[in-house]
Structures are given as C-alpha cells and as structure tokens.
Amino acid sequence: MRVLEVSEHYFPHVGGVSEHVYCLSRELIKKGHEVEVLTSRIPGKVPEDVPSVRIGRGVVLPINKSFSRITAGVGIWGRIKKLIRYNHYDVIHVHGSLAPMLSMAVLHYSRNDKPRTIVVGTFHAGHDPSSLYRIFKQPLHRQFFRYYDGLIAVSPVAKDTMSCFFPGDYRIIPNGVDTDVFSPGRSALADELPPSSLKLLFMGRFEPKKGLKHLLGAMSIIKRLIPDVKLVVVGGGPMRPYYNRFIAPEVKDSIIFAGEITGALRAEYYRWCDLSITPSIGAESFGITLLEAMGCAKPVVATYIPAFRYVMSEKEGIFVKPRDHADLARGILELARRRKDWKRVGKAGRRKALGYSWKRIAGMVEDYYQEVRIRRGIVKKDSQVPIVRSFVRGDPRFKGQKEHRVVYHT
C-alpha cells in the first residue's frame, strides 16, 4: 500500500507523537509498504530512513498544559491538494487532534480522491473537555471529521477525550516501544555520570503537565535521607529557566540537566538509572516514558493518573499522588528501600514492554488499514492484496535504472 502519515508533531520535535509516527512508518516500510510523512519544517536533524514531505513552518502554541504545533505559511492548502491528487495514496493516516492546519487540509482534499483512498485518524491527546470543540463541534464534524473512514485512539483516555464530542467506532491501538533499543544492559554512560547509591532519572519535555517542578521539590526530602542521591533530568524546552526556582540550594549539586536527548542514546540514560520517575500532573493519554523505562527493566515511580494506570500496574513500579512532592518523595524512598525487589519489578516491566513492541503494534495498524479497506469495498475479504514496492536509484538489483516499480501479492 502507498501510505501518507500526517502529523504536526514530528522530528526534530521530540515527543511521544513524533516517536509514534516515526516508528510506525519505519515498521510499515519494513513490511513492504511505501510510506511518506507529511509534516512542517522546523530546524534540526531529521531521520533519513523514513521519507518526509515538509511544508510551511511549525509554530509553537501553549495548549493543554503543554506546547503544541500548527503549520503556518503561504500556499499550504494548495501544496497538500497537489500532493494528494498526484500521489493517489491508498491510506492517509492523520495523527493528532482535529485542529489546524495539516489535518483539516488533508481531510478536505482526500474526500475528492475517493473511492480509492481511505483516511484513518489516530488520536493521541488526553485532556479535559475542550471549549473550542464544544463551540465548533457541528461545523468541525460536518466539514472534516465525517470524512474519516477509520478511528484509532491510543488509549481509553484518548478515546474518551474525542468521543464525547465526536462519537464513533474507535479502535484502541496503543503506542509502541522499540524493545530492541530500549532493552536491559550496562549503560555506556556508567563511567561518565557520577556514582551514587540512588540514581534517579526524569525523561520528558519541559512542560507544566510533566510535573518536573514536583520532582525538584521532592529532592530536598529525599536528600535528607539519602545524601548522595543523584537526579539526571533529560529534556528541553523554553521553560528551563522557570524550573531553576524550584531547586533548593542544598540539592543543586545533586541535579544534572543533560539537555534534550534523542534516539538510542535515551536508552543509555534509562540503563544508567536505578529508578525512572514520571511525575505528570495529568492531561496525558498514554505513558511512553513508562514503556521505555520498563523496556530497560527499570522500576518506575509514576503518578496515579488514568493514562498511566492503563499502561502500568504496581507489579512494574509504584504510584504516587499527582501534584504532591511530599508523596512523590515518599514513593521514591519506599521503592529505594526495596532494593532487593528491583530485579523482580524490572523483569515484570520488561515482560509488559515486550507486548508493546513496534513490530506488534504496526501489525495491528496494518490489519486495521485492511479492515477499513474491506469495509469500504476497496478490496474483497480473503482476496489477494497488491503491495507496491518502489526501488530507486542506488539499489543494486536495478542498476542503471532511475526507478523500477514491482507489484507483489499477498
């Protein structure tokens, strides 16, 4: 199949949606599909193993205790119209909320490319009911939402967030984790980062909903009982100066800001730590950092919010109250005292993470594409389905040819 994955959030922007779109696209390519990612331009390095089409500029807006992106620029809708009409995709897969700019433009023009093309939406957000959705529900449904052929939510929280305004038959297909990259082992950073009897890790963007300020506040309590505790903070964002005010003078030497880390190097930080701390206050739909830590067989301390309860149980870590640095400190100290249990808890986490491997999740998405195509009558059930593979210049099998397209059947 020829697939267009559409997302306002994509690398070099670091985050759960970016990881989702990249890993899904990479796995679909491995399965023989022809995949491109449509997103906006932002400065930074991007993965080269997944083709991308970039239009406009990504603009950051503060939304939902976080920072979201929309695509801005002249002629965006016209470029999307040409892209869809020229390429005739079999599947257009839109990621994110129903919001300007890419999702609306794609939905508007893809309806003219039917009956061949199906449009699937995956909804990643988890937050309180949106006042904008409440106001614009009818026109959004009439002009855009009704053109989705299939609906996916990454969790029941994400489903509830959307279905209260836009009812439909949502399929729960969760986020995944690369269990080959996020796996147990000795960290390559073991000799670079300072030793400690308790090594803590925070992995996440510097946004209010991630709850970093509560972890920084908990460090004073933890250090009184474990003087050589170390916390490594991995993340980035414009709020870095804001968090300095929550660092007490007595814990400054115990906190290391590592900056924004992408790719496989993130796994080295998980392998370095003893405990992974995820103190989000809410407005989450999943818990990818929980899966990453569990993939590396690390116990997790996480806040007791619905999205995290969907991913993790007390077999893989411990829950604490959100927005409560004292209870966060209590949970960390309790798990620290249970050192003999770390291996057992880590093994349980690893087992759970394996169930979320991207190979398995991508297979579920691929099956859903076919299910929707069958429902739409594009292909018949149990019939042979053509898969088009495109080999470009540089492939030794087609030396001297600019491009060669081969149709396989499954």
SSE blueprint:
Elements: E1 2-7, H1 16-30, E2 34-41, E3 52-63, E4 66-72, H2 76-87, E5 91-95, H3 102-110, E6 118-123, H4 131-143, E7 150-153, H5 156-163, E8 170-172, E9 199-203, H6 212-225, E10 230-234, H7 240-243, E11 255-259, H8 265-272, E12 275-278, H9 288-295, E13 300-303, H10 306-311, E14 317-320, H11 325-337, H12 342-354, H13 358-375, E15 386-392, E16 403-409
Parallel strand pairs: 1-2, 1-5, 2-3, 5-6, 6-7, 7-8, 9-10, 9-12, 10-11, 12-13, 13-14
Antiparallel strand pairs: 3-4, 15-16
Q: Can you walk through the features of this model?
A:
With 410 residues, the protein is α/β, with parallel strands linked by helices. It folds into two domains: 2-176 and 357-379, Rossmann fold; 199-354, Glycogen Phosphorylase B (Rossmann fold). It has 13 helices and 16 strands. The protein has helices spanning 16-30, 76-87, 102-110, 131-143, 156-163, 212-225, 240-243, 265-272, 288-295, 306-311, 325-337, 342-354, 358-375, and strands at 2-7, 34-41, 52-63, 66-72, 91-95, 118-123, 150-153, 170-172, 199-203, 230-234, 255-259, 275-278, 300-303, 317-320, 386-392, 403-409. An eight-stranded mixed β-sheet has the order 4-3-2-1-5-6-7-8, with helices on both faces. A six-stranded parallel β-sheet has the order 11-10-9-12-13-14, with helices on both faces. The protein has a two-stranded antiparallel sheet with strand order 15-16. Helix 7 (240-243) links the parallel strand 10 (230-234) and strand 11 (255-259). Helix 9 packs across helix 12. Residues 386-410 have low confidence and may be disordered.
